[in-house]
Amino acid sequence: MTPKTTRWGILGAADFALRHMGPAIHAAKGAHLAALATSNRDKAVGFQAFAPGLQVFDSYDALLADPDIDAVYIPLPNHLHVPWTVKALEAGKHVLCEKPMALREDDFDTLIAVRDSTGKLAAEAFMIVHHPQFIRARELVQGGAIGTLVHVDASFSFYNDDTGNIRNQADAGGGGLRDIGVYTFGSARFVTGQEPVAVPYANLRFENGVDVFAQVAADFADFSYSAVVSMRMFPHQQITFHGEKGVLRLTCPYNANVFDLAKLTLESEGQTVVSERWPAVNQYILQVENFCKSIQTDAPYPCPLEFSRGTQRMMDMVFAAGRPAA
Fold it and tell me: Residue 165's CB: how many other CB atoms inside 10 A?
C-alpha cells in the first residue's frame, strides 16, 4: 500500500519560504509542494525552479478553496498569522505557521479552540525541537548528565537596521524578541521541561516602536535564567546549561548548519569533554516530515500549540517587565 502524501500550499512568496521551507516541503518524505499563492507571478519563478508543476494562485483565498490542498505553510508578517491560520483551519486545511504564531498568549486560546473544533492539525514552525541536538540536550539535562541544573544562559543576535524590513515595523508585529527571542525562551523550556515563574528583570531598548535589544533575567522553579536578544549586534548564538556536575553547551542551537555546524559539547567531572555533531541534518525537513506523520498516522506532534502558548506567555512576561511606562 502506497503511503499517503500530504499536498502542501504556501501562502505568500516570502524569502524565507523560498530559501528554506519551500525546499524542505519539496524534499520531505510524505510531502508534496503543490501550490503557492502570490499576487506577483514573478516571485513564483524561484519556487518553480525546484518544484516543477507548482500551481500558482493569485490570492490566498483561492488556494484555500482548492480541495486538493491538504496543508498550508504560512510565512506571512507576524500580525497576519492568527487570522490566516483561523481562515485556513476553517477551510479544512492543516496549518504550519511561522513563529511567532501569535502576538499574545490569549491568541493561542483562539487557535486551540479552532484547531479542536475543526479537527485539523495546527502548529507553530518551531523547527529546533525537531533537531536531534535539542532532543539529545533534553535527554542529557533531564537525565542528570550535568547533575542538578543551576543556571541557563542563552544569546541570539544579528544586525538588521533596515526600516523597510518587517522586523523593524511595529505595525507588522516586528521586534527582536518576537523574531528570535522565541528561540532563546522556547529552547530553555523544551530542554528543561520547566516554566518561568517570574521575570524580575528585563532591560529592553526600543527603536521606532520595536525592541532591538533585550537583556532578560528570569526565575524558573529550579534554576535561574538569563538571555540577551538583539537585532543590532553582530551575529551570535549559543545556549548553555550549567549544572552542579557539568556544563552542556550548544554553539549553533538555532540556525543549525546555516550559521555554523550543529554541535553539542558536554563538560563533566574529571575534565571530561564529549562533543556530538550533526553536519547533515536539515531541521526544516524534519519538521515537515513530523507534521505529515502526525496528519497521516495521528502520531503526537512534537510541538503542539500548548507548548507554543507557554513560550508566548514567557514573552508576555518579559514585555510586561521591560516596557517603558506609558
Answer: 12
β-pairing, 196-207 vs 149-159, is unpaired
What is the reported pTM?
A: 0.95
> Tens digit of pLDDT for each residue in 54-109?
999 999 999 999 999 999 999 999 999 999 999 999 999 999 999 999 999 999 99
CB contact at 8 A, 228 and 105? no
Given a contact cutoff of 8 angstroms between Cβ atoms, the answer to whether 229 and 156 are in contact is yes
DSSP 204-241: EEEETTEEEEEEEEEEESSSEEEEEEESEEEEEEEEEE
Instruction: Please give the pLDDT value at position 324.
Output: 55
Residue type, 248: L
**DSSP letter for each residue of 257-274:** TTTB--EEEEEETTTEEE
How far apart, in Å, do the first and last CA atoms of the chain sit? 62
Beta bridge partners of 35: 9, 55
> Nearest CA to 284 among 143, 86, 126?
126
DSSP run (H or E) holding 140: helix 132-142
* pLDDT (tens digit per residue) in 37-57: 999 999 999 999 999 999 999
Residues 39 and 259: their CA atoms lie apart, in Å, by 32
Share of the chain above pLDDT 90, in %: 94
Residues forming the active site = 99
Any long-range contacts for 134-140 (C-beta under 8 Å, 24+ apart)?
134/187, 134/190, 134/191, 134/250, 134/253, 136/264, 136/276, 137/191, 137/241, 137/248, 137/250, 137/264, 138/190, 138/191, 138/192, 138/193, 140/248, 140/266
Return the pLDDT at 293.
97
Cβ atoms < 10 Å from Cβ of 309: 19
